[in-house]
Amino acid sequence: MNKLILILTTLLLFGCGQKKSLTKLISPAGNYELINNVSEFVIDRTNTPDSINEINSFVSVNNLIVFASDSGIYFLDKDRNELKRYFKLNIEDLLWIELTPNFNNSKLLVKTSTGQTSTALIFQIDLNTFEIQWFAKHSGQIVTSSYSNNGNLIALGTGYRKKDNQKDTAEYYSSLFLINAITGNFLDYFQQGESMSQIEFSKNDNLIYSVLGWPHVDTYVWKVSDKNEKTGVFGKDQTRFYDAFSIDKENFITTGADGIYKWNITNPNNPEIVYRNYINDNDRIFRVNQAYILVNYQNGLINPPTIKYFDQNFSIIDSVNLNTSFNEVELSKTYLTGIDKGNNTVSFYNLDNKSIDKIITTDSLQYKILIN
Q1: SS3 of residue 258 by DSSP
Q2: First to last CA, the chain
Q3: Which of 258, 273, 300, 360 is most enclosed, with most CB atoms within 10 A?
Q4: Helix, strand, or coil (residue 238)
């Protein structure tokens, strides 16, 4: 039996050596398409809104409460308690909807997913007029996205994906590409094929921090002006990284499994661990003025998190344990918002008072719609 295994292994290795396979990274432009007939997927049903099902995404921007459920996307006026707009989504097997405002809260990017390898939809809504400005689909899941700070670009990240062909050359789609935020048009792609986890632009929009997804452990830094050569690879063996954001022109932060890392763009081999502790891959870190807030799920995502306060030097100055589920966390001025999917509520955590001082229930949202 051992001799047979040896023979088969030798034949396999010999066969592989006879047919050399080259790897090529190609543009994902062929997977991305702008759609003119938006009504095929999105219908304005403001006058006859559906009942709210499970809330799966929520943002608070300007004077609006915006949330998505399986039944669609709702825009409510915070002060007047009225429904401003409701878009019903005509999407089968919808798994999730993600809402991302740009940095001046004038636009809202909507991403949907129906599965890892199925079509993803992405479109932009003007938050002043509620007009859908452009609508696109991508033949594969879009994992992450980020607006540039000037609002002109959107970076999109996907999973690792190979193109089926009959050639000897193995072709893989780039997993990081840019679109025009004004028109939705595809612009260009980077020479990166690894799975994505998170994207962030630097403050001056010159760099993109690209946090790789499983099974990779690094963060790539790209110049927006150079799609072929990375500025640097930042990581540590056997350590997963989850989140990244810019501090200044020279430094940025990543969260890793064993703490918070501070990196200098010019020195990728010597990071400073500014906070040592276990960090979950669902944890979120935010910068508020000159301080930092970490939403830390020490006991897993199904349990309430701990809100940790850091000063500008990442010394921990306070820690608050929540007693309610608090997921899909977003920052809005002095509030963190989180969804309790079990109770179908949204909680507002006041960063100054260090407590949850407002909870929106599904029933109250239904009421706001009905009185319109």
Answers
A1: coil
A2: 77
A3: 360
A4: coil
